[in-house]
Amino acid sequence: PTMAHSEALLVLENFIGGKFVPCSSYIDSYNPSTGDVYCRVPDSGKEEVEAAVKAAKDAFPIWSSKSPLERSQILNKLADLIEHDLEAFAQAESKDQGKTITFARTVDIPRAVYNFRFFASSILHHVTECTEMPTMGCVHYTLRAPVGVAGLISPWNLPLYLLTWKIAPAIACGNTVVAKPSEMTSVTAWMMCKLLEKAGVPPGVVNVVLGTGAKAGEALVCHPDVPLISFTGSTLTAQRITERSAPHCKRLSLELGGKNPAIIFDDADLSQCIPTTVRSSFANQGEICLCTSRIFVQRGIYSEFLKRFVAEAKKWKTGNPSDPTVSVGALISKEHLEKVRNYVKKAQAEGARVLCGEGVDPLSLPPGNEKGYFMSPTVIAEVKDESCCMQEEIFGPVTCVVAFDTEEEVIRRANGVKYGLAATVWSSNVGRVHRVAHRLKSGLVWTNCWLVRDLNLPFGGMKASGIGREGAKDSYEFFTEVKTITIKH
Ligand code: NAD
C-alpha cells in the first residue's frame, strides 16, 4: 500500500501515569476507505505494560478512596469534554475504522459520551444487602470495594464506544485501569487521553497502552498485578485469554462473537420488519456483534419477504464513508474483506444463490476510494443450516435468508449454532413472542425491534458468545469485590 503523501502521518503515543510517552517501535495503521497508511501506533510490549500497571497501582489508593460523588462529577466532566469535541471524534473514528461518518456521529461517539454519563449516575444509586438473624442476635451486611487495576481489552468495530463501556464502570467503582484498544483502531482512545487531565482524572487512573494482542494484550493478561480482565472480541482470542490468565485465577468478563438469528413469522408487520432487518444485517458494514446473519422466514411469506428485502438492501449505498448519503463504509482491513468474500464464494460453491451485492452488483467507487476495502450488502438464499455461512461469524455485510415451517422447527434451527448472543423475533402474536423468546438460547432477544438498549439491564452472551454480563448492576458487581460482615450484639 502507498502512503498518503498529502498529509503527515499521525503518530500515536501511549498514555501512562498522566503523560504521553513515545514507544521504541511502531505499527502501521491503514485508512480502510483508501488503503493508505495514515497513522503509526506504538507496538507496546511487556515493558510498556509494566510501566502502565505500576502507574495504575500507584494511583489506586487515592482514586479508590474518593467518594462515589467525586468520581461521578469527574466522569460527567469527561462526558462533556468528549461531547464538546464530538465532530472531531466522529471524523477520527470514521477515518480510522472505515465506518460512515453518519454512524460515528449518531451512534459511536454519542454512546461513548453516554457511557460516562450513565455510570456517573448509576454509581450513586447502588445499595448493598443487609439481613437479620434475631435468634442469633446477629445482623449481616455486605460491602463492595474496588478490586484494583483492571485490564480492559477492546475490539476494532466500535472502538471508543466499547472501550468507554469498560473504562466508565471500572473507574466509577474506584478501580484504576490499563486499557488496550485494538491496534487497528487506536486513534479515538488516544484523543480521549488528551481530555483526562482537564476532566480531573488524576494521573495513573486511566492508562492506555497501544499495540497488538499478541504482545501488549498478552502482557496485560499475564500481569500478576492485574486481577481482572474485561475483554470484548472474538471467541478464539477469549479462549487464549482464559488459558493465559488461568494460572493467576483472574476474574474475567468475556463479550464475544455471535451468529444472530432473526425469526420472522407470517403475521409479522413487514413494513417495520424489512427496513429494521436490513439495518440489523448491514449497519456498520455488518461489523457489530449483534448483527443479524441468519434470517428464518416462515414459508408462506418467504418469497414476498425475499423480494422486498433484497430491494431494500439495494437502497443502501456503499462508498466514501464521509459522504452523508452513504450507508455502507469500508470494512476494517484488506485481510478481513478477503475473509468475508471467501464466505460468499464458499456459499456459491455449495449451491446457494447470491441475490445482491458481492459478485452480483458491480461496485462503483469514487476516485480515491478504489483501493478501499468495500463490499456492498450481500444477501444469500438457499443456504444449508450446516454450511459455514450459517454456522460461523462472518462479521461483514452478508446475511443468509432461509425458509421454515413451524415454531418448534425454527427454535431448534435458531439454537443450532455454537453462539448465543442476540436474536430477534418478528410476530404480532404476543403469546408466540413470549414462548419463542423464552426458548431461544440467547443473552438478548429483541421482538419487533433491534438494538434498543437500556444500559441498566444485563448485556452479554450465552454459549460461545461469552461469560458474564455488563450493565448497571452487572458491571458494578464485576468491578467490585464483595465482603459479608456479621455483627453480633
Ligand atoms: P479480536 O479477538 O481479534 O481482538 C480483540 C482485542 O483483543 C484486540 O484489542 C486485540 O488486539 C486483542 N487481542 C488479540 N489477541 C490477544 C491475546 N492473545 N491476548 C490479549 N489480547 C488479545 O477481535 P476483533 O477482530 O478485534 O473484533 C471482532 C470480534 O469481536 C467479533 O468476534 C465480534 O463479534 C466481537 N465483538 C463482541 C462484542 C460483544 O459485546 N459481545 C462486541 C463487539 C465485537
TrEMBL record:
List, alphabetically, the Gene3D superfamilies matched.
Aldehyde Dehydrogenase, Chain A, domain 1, Aldehyde Dehydrogenase, Chain A, domain 2
Establish whether keyword Nucleus is in the entry.
no
Q: What is its EC number?
A: 1.2.1.32
The protein's predominant localisation is cytoplasm
Enzymatic reactions: 2-aminomuconate 6-semialdehyde + NAD(+) + H2O = (2Z,4E)-2-aminomuconate + NADH + 2 H(+)
Q: What pathway is this protein said to act in by its record?
A: Amino-acid degradation; L-kynurenine degradation
Q: Which residues form the Aldehyde dehydrogenase domain?
A: 25-485
**Which Pfam families does its entry note?**
Aldedh
Q: Name one GO biological process term.
A: retinoic acid metabolic process
Question: What EC class does the entry list?
Answer: oxidoreductase
Give a Gene Ontology cellular component term annotated to this protein.
cytoplasm
Swiss-Prot/TrEMBL keywords? Cytoplasm, NAD, Oxidoreductase
Which GO MF terms does the UniProt record name? aminomuconate-semialdehyde dehydrogenase activity; retinal dehydrogenase (NAD+) activity
* Superkingdom, taxonomy of origin: Eukaryota
Q: Which PROSITE patterns match?
A: ALDEHYDE_DEHYDR_CYS (PS00070), ALDEHYDE_DEHYDR_GLU (PS00687)
What subcellular compartments does it reside in? Cytoplasm
Q: Where is the active site?
A: 255
Function comment: Catalyzes the NAD-dependent oxidation of 2-aminomuconic semialdehyde of the kynurenine metabolic pathway in L-tryptophan degradation.
Q: Which family does it belong to?
A: Belongs to the aldehyde dehydrogenase family.
- Name of the protein: 2-aminomuconic semialdehyde dehydrogenase
